[in-house]
Amino acid sequence: MDLAPSPLALPFATLPQIAGVTARVARAHYKDWDRCDLTYVEFAPGTAVAGVFTQSACASTEVELGREQVKQGVARALIVNAGNSNAFTGHRGRTAVEQIAAQVSAHLGCAPEAVFVSSTGVIGVPLPMDKAKAGVAAVLDAEPADWRDAALAIGTTDTFCKGATATAMIGDTKVQLNGIIKGSGMIAPDMATMLGYIFTDAAIAPSLLQQMLEDANKRTFSCITVDGDTSTSDTVLAFATGAAGNRPLLEMDDAGAYAFAAALHDVCRQLAQLVVRDGEGAAKFIEIRVTGAASDDSARNIALAIANSPLVKTAIAGGDANWGRVVMAVGKAGEPADRDKLSIGFGGIWAARDGQPVADYDEAPVAEHLAGDEIDIDVDLGIGDGRATVWTCDLTHGYIDINADYRS
Amino acid sequence: MDLAPSPLALPFATLPQIAGVTARVARAHYKDWDRCDLTYVEFAPGTAVAGVFTQSACASTEVELGREQVKQGVARALIVNAGNSNAFTGHRGRTAVEQIAAQVSAHLGCAPEAVFVSSTGVIGVPLPMDKAKAGVAAVLDAEPADWRDAALAIGTTDTFCKGATATAMIGDTKVQLNGIIKGSGMIAPDMATMLGYIFTDAAIAPSLLQQMLEDANKRTFSCITVDGDTSTSDTVLAFATGAAGNRPLLEMDDAGAYAFAAALHDVCRQLAQLVVRDGEGAAKFIEIRVTGAASDDSARNIALAIANSPLVKTAIAGGDANWGRVVMAVGKAGEPADRDKLSIGFGGIWAARDGQPVADYDEAPVAEHLAGDEIDIDVDLGIGDGRATVWTCDLTHGYIDINADYRS
């Protein structure tokens, strides 16, 4: 199905070249569509890698293998298949991934473990090996592609292509970070979400990159939700070629490590928010800020209970300042809360304070805020210092349209 | 908003009289509607009571008081306000409930603690005391109503009125159980759901009634979900007048106790399923049967993860045998699962067995099953003996229509 671009779409960011990274795209015809659906990214020898993956108990072979591969910390190539997730396909699924890795490693003369494979699309249909083989052969021969081509080729139901960029100074060396991501449904937190890839020319030890990626993930990809549904294939990988020539970062105490971590966080946050902006059927981008909770984790759980509540999401879709539904969601989160200390606001205006409606509450400016497409919900628990921010979108007829008909 | 009856509606059951129980209804005009919205049920002296309530951390005053009252085990009256939940209204909310209880207890000459009050409707608007007072005065004077009138008067967004009945033999005495319930949105498990009331003429000790109600609740009301959203006011109360004259049931070893527990379970299951049949926007009734799980609790959590998945619910709405989304939901449930032992079927036909698609899978009979409005999903984990059955409905445009516009 061809979908109109999300009303919340942003233009594709201008992503510079990253030394040591070359992308190529090709048509593997995984589905009956006229577009590139196989992406190949080649990395210079010595490239470090880190990754975070879905917590699903039914994870795909790609995720299982990827978890093992990142422990070795080195990468030479990434293959992304779009249109077929190859998940829940038994031994045939594993054979397909191993065959692709073998084909690429033979071409590069590297270990197959240095070839990372991701697949996204329909679950339960074995990846057609003939198409994969011909597609890989074609992509290895293809001309280098630009970042936008790669971001387009990894997408499935995405309505716009998504990239982000940032820089950091490590000593006197400026390093560059680029990221691309795909995803718009089956998006829920507690994992790395969907397929995201971050590329940098910084020199950094794999273990430190892994630590920074996990930290960033916790406050970005794990803080977004579209529908509360967790994919079997969610993956975020970060690749660092070292071509910038900075003094390699080995631990957080090294000069420039915090600057790099901040830039990595920045790229992850941009990418995570772009996924929400392409949430299936989304018409409004919602930021939920929870303060005064028992702990940061408690605040995040409460924020996610609000973000995943169909009643809150439909109220926002209808432009309804229905703070009673926010109370309901706080109540069901299973976290410490005191009804009589709870405050709720929209767009910076409190509707309820300390467990009851604000006496002179004027709904007019709140209604105006809710008529827009960037919505803020503030919740203060009044019982502690815990805080968290979560991003989601509204629940509209568009979500039903997309998911009642699409075999994804 | 006036909603058309759910396509899954059933006719109101024929409920006999219960000795010791008299219902009356009146117009309190809690909303701008022309219908009875205040229900009063009077019980003979000596009536036992048991109750289960929402687990919400933001529960209403009615729920807080009700939890305390059931510990005393006796009831003389029930008041149900429809159109205003009186939840999250601070001290004014508590004053309103206390005033109603005082008014009724003065009329009956009983302790105010023997008067149970429930309220359902919009959250965060104090119950208008003048309307409540006039309404209670009117209802105390009203003619006795039949069960259907009472079932209608407790409803809010319900599209049909819901009742259930069963009998049991205790020794030589036949006892009768009737139940009425309201609810169609903000329905999620892990609590007693919405407002449900069960009436019986059996003689039974409050503590045993409470134990039986909790057991039944766990396998009925706690096994349904419409939208995963938990109300602040969910309540199920059971009242036993003892007028049937059976030898009073004091413990499970007493003759007839299991027969009565079975009848109570039967009424609870009927009522719970009726709520699902009136799920907001529901077009299909879905039974999800999970077997082979690590434990019964694990099976229930997995069944609920499937039942609450918007992607599964929209797939069923679209008549799509999308078992990949069921795999996704099993994976995200946070329970033990082995991808390669997992089997999934629809309407009694396995689509996937032991972690991969069935080789000669014929989708035609499955598609035919999914075109109907009573859908069965079978999931076998293949790792243990745990089992659970959960009921839900599909997610359709109707849910968005109702909730994007209704200030509930």
From TrEMBL, chains A, B:
Pfam families named in the record: ArgJ
A Gene Ontology molecular function term of the record: L-glutamate N-acetyltransferase activity
Site keyed Involved in the stabilization of negative charge on the oxyanion by the formation of the oxyanion hole: positions: T120, G121
Residues that hold substrate according to the record: T156, K182, T193, E280, N403, S408
Domain of life: Bacteria
Enzyme Commission number(s): 2.3.1.35, 2.3.1.1
Catalytic machinery residues: T193
Annotated localization: Cytoplasm
Catalysed reaction equations from the record: L-glutamate + acetyl-CoA = N-acetyl-L-glutamate + CoA + H(+); N(2)-acetyl-L-ornithine + L-glutamate = N-acetyl-L-glutamate + L-ornithine
Site (Cleavage) residue list: A192, T193
Principal location listed in the UniProt entry: cytoplasm
Signal peptide annotation: none
Pathway: Amino-acid biosynthesis; L-arginine biosynthesis; N(2)-acetyl-L-ornithine from L-glutamate: step 1/4; Amino-acid biosynthesis; L-arginine biosynthesis; L-ornithine and N-acetyl-L-glutamate from L-glutamate and N(2)-acetyl-L-ornithine (cyclic): step 1/1
GO cellular component, one term: cytoplasm
Any one GO BP annotation for this protein: L-arginine biosynthetic process
Family annotation (CDD domains): OAT
Keywords: Acyltransferase, Amino-acid biosynthesis, Arginine biosynthesis, Autocatalytic cleavage, Cytoplasm, Multifunctional enzyme, Transferase
Described purpose of this protein according to its UniProt entry: Catalyzes two activities which are involved in the cyclic version of arginine biosynthesis: the synthesis of N-acetylglutamate from glutamate and acetyl-CoA as the acetyl donor, and of ornithine by transacetylation between N(2)-acetylornithine and glutamate.
Quaternary context: Heterotetramer of two alpha and two beta chains.
Similarity remark: Belongs to the ArgJ family.
Protein name: Arginine biosynthesis bifunctional protein ArgJ
Gene behind the chain: argJ
